[in-house]
Each structure stands twice: as structure tokens, then as C-alpha cells.
Write a structure and sequence with these properties.
Blueprint (H helix, E strand, L loop, with lengths): L8 E5 L7 H11 L3 E5 L2 H4 L4 H8 L11 H15 L3 E6 L5 H4 L9 H24 L3 E11 L11 H25 L2 E7 L5 H4 L4 H11 L7 H12 L10 E4 L10 H11 L1
Parallel strand pairs: 1-2, 1-3, 3-4, 4-5, 5-6
Helix pairs in contact: 1-10, 4-6, 6-7
The protein binds nicotinamide-adenine-dinucleotide (NAD).
Length: 272
């Protein structure tokens, strides 16, 4: 622990269970001296696991469906009230696709679910930032981070409508980053994370094979959730004050690797 976030306060969304990336971010933010409010969809609260994290981090929970402006308004005003002032950081760690859950392939997507995917996984980031702007909820040099995936740039068929959601999410980070940078010196970024074994991750068909493929292609191997949490902490800290409007690859080198010895070996052996 180095107290990188001493005196900083914020909101952390998306901690569902111990595997969640947001769960690890919360533990690390707490260890680095931050105070924060936890939030998740009211439905996710029923599982109750978040109460454990809340106790560990001494962080209250304010339930909010990230698609509901009303919920988000209560979340941002409640967080500022509880934390005693404006916010220094916000983590958007939210994703959901009913099309993926139901195993729909790209040619048979249900369009109502498609819109829901975009609303939950991308527009919700805009809604959070818009509420923060309206309530003037950020301190200067604040930081908003959302978690993305490389399917925003490359085709991964099984990721179906989440690919478009991530492309939209990254675009929102750029546009809102420009606006909030000017208005309030607040930075907005996305982190594009390696495949990670979480509830959302493992719900994608073929995840295990793809996880192994990415692991063998990336020179550093897949980035674990703990390392992603470290990266989030660095982006909340004052060490990255001029990083904004970026999609930051956190993938062990996956995105810039063509082929690796491990993959060549695998294919050569399979052919024998
Ligand atoms: N796991 C991976 O392989 C991977 C890779 C890259 C990026 N990501 C992204 O990381 C983020 C966190 O996912 P995770 O892997 O930790 O899985 P997770 O399942 O633990 O987290 C997803 C969270 O989204 C929340 N959520 C869903 N609908 C919501 C709503 N309407 N309102 C508020 N919250 C809602 C869920 O309750 C859950 O806590 C997501 O954006 C995901 O797309 C994950």
C-alpha cells in the first residue's frame, strides 16, 4: 500500500462477486486510502455478496440500475452526501447482453435485447457522466474509467452485440472526455482488458478456448483482473492527470501481436 488515493473519494460500480474486476478495484482503492460508494443493479444486490465487500471497505452501497437517470441521480447525490463533497473518481464496470446470455448468433440477434445491450453497457456511461455534469459532481482533475474489450476494434463473432456496445463506450469516452476536460479538467478513459474469468466473461460461448488462445498469443499472457485493478488505480491517481480520451490496451500485448511461437507449435502439432 502506498496511499496513492489518500483523500480521494468516488463511486465504484459493477462488483458482483469476488471474481468481478470492480471487486478487485474496490479492495485496491480501499488499500490505497480512497473512500467510496459501491453500486450495482438492484437485481444483482439480491445475491448479497456485495455486502461482504461493503464491510471490508467500509463503503456503503447505493443500488442503481445504470440505465435509469432517476437511479443515477440518486446515486450521485447520495454518494456526494455520504462522502462529504465532490467526487474524484468513477468506475464504470458494467456489461450485459441478453443475446449473449441466450446464445444468439450474430445473424439472429433480438433487436430489443440489442438495444438493451447498448443501453446497459454503453449509454449508461454517458448517463453517468451527464448526471455528474448536471450535479457538478466532479472535483477538478477527477477521473472516470470504463472497462472495454478489443472486440470494439476487431471482429469476434461470439461477442455479438457487445462489440458494438464497446465501440460506443469508447467513443463516449472520447466525446465526454473532450467536454469534461474543458469544463472541469476531468479525464475520461477506457481500459481494454484481456479476457478475464468473471461472471460476464465466462458467459460468452467459446470463452475457455478463446481465453487460452489469447493467453498463448500475448507475449506477457492475459492480464489478470488484479493487474487491471492496478491500472484503474493508476488512472484514478494524480500520476496520470494528462491521460484522457484514450482507449488503453491492458492485454499483455495481444492487440499488437500477429502470431506467437506457442500458437505455431499448437497448429503444427494439431496437423501431425
Ligand atoms: N471478463 C472479461 O473477459 C472482460 C474483458 C474485457 C472487459 N470486460 C468488462 O469489464 C466490465 C466488468 O465485467 P466483469 O468481467 O467484472 O464481470 P461481472 O459480471 O462481475 O460484472 C458485470 C457487472 O455489470 C453489472 N450490471 C449489469 N447490468 C447492470 C445494470 N443495468 N445496472 C448496473 N449494473 C449492471 C452486473 O451486476 C455486474 O456486477 C464489463 O464492462 C465487461 O464488459 C470484461
Amino acid at each position: 500500500m502506498s496511499n496513492l488515493l489518500a483523500g480521494k473519494v468516488g463511486i465504484i460500480s459493477g462488483a458482483l462477486n469476488e471474481e468481478s474486476i470492480a471487486w478487485k478495484v474496490a479492495l485496491k482503492a480501499h488499500a490505497e486510502g480512497a473512500r467510496f460508494v459501491l453500486t450495482n443493479a438492484p437485481l444483482a444486490m439480491r445475491m448479497g455478496e456485495i455486502n461482504k465487500l461493503s464491510e471490508q471497505c467500509n463503503a456503503p452501497i447505493i443500488p442503481a440500475d445504470a440505465t435509469s437517470m432517476e437511479d443515477l441521480e440518486k446515486l450521485f447525490s447520495g454518494a456526494q452526501e455520504h462522502l462529504g463533497g465532490k467526487l474524484d473518481f468513477v468506475l464504470h464496470s458494467i456489461g450485459m447482453s441478453a443475446n449473449i446470455r441466450k446464445g444468439k448468433h450474430y445473424g439472429e440477434l433480438n433487436y430489443e435485447w440489442y438495444q438493451k445491450t447498448l443501453d446497459v453497457s454503453a449509454l449508461s456511461f454517458h448517463k453517468m457522466l451527464a448526471v455528474a455534469e448536471k450535479q457538478d459532481a466532479f472535483n477538478e482533475w477527477g477521473s472516470a474509467v470504463a472497462l472495454s474489450y478489443i472486440a470494439a476494434q476487431r471482429a469476434f463473432l461470439d461477442y455479438t452485440d457487445m462489440s458494438q456496445a464497446k465501440a460506443m463506450l469508447e467513443s463516449i469516452a472520447r466525446s465526454y472526455g473532450q467536454r469534461l476536460g474543458k469544463l472541469k479538467k476531468v479525464r475520461v478513459n477506457t481500459i481494454s482488458q484481456s479476457p478475464t474469468k468473471t461472471t460476464a466473461g465466462t458467459g460468452i460461448s467459446g470463452f475457455d478456448a478463446f481465453y487460452e488462445y489469447a493467453n498463448r498469443l500475448s507475449p506477457l499472457g492475459n492480464a489478470p483482473a488484479e493487474a487491471c485493478a492496478d491500472y484503474c488505480i493508476s488512472l484514478f491517481s494524480d500520476l496520470t492527470r494528462y491521460v484522457t480520451m484514450q482507449n488503453l490496451m491492458h492485454d499483455g500485448g495481444f492487440s499488437t501481436t500477429g502470431i506467437s511461437e506457442e500458437i505455431v507449435e499448437l497448429i503444427t502439432n494439431a496437423k501431425q
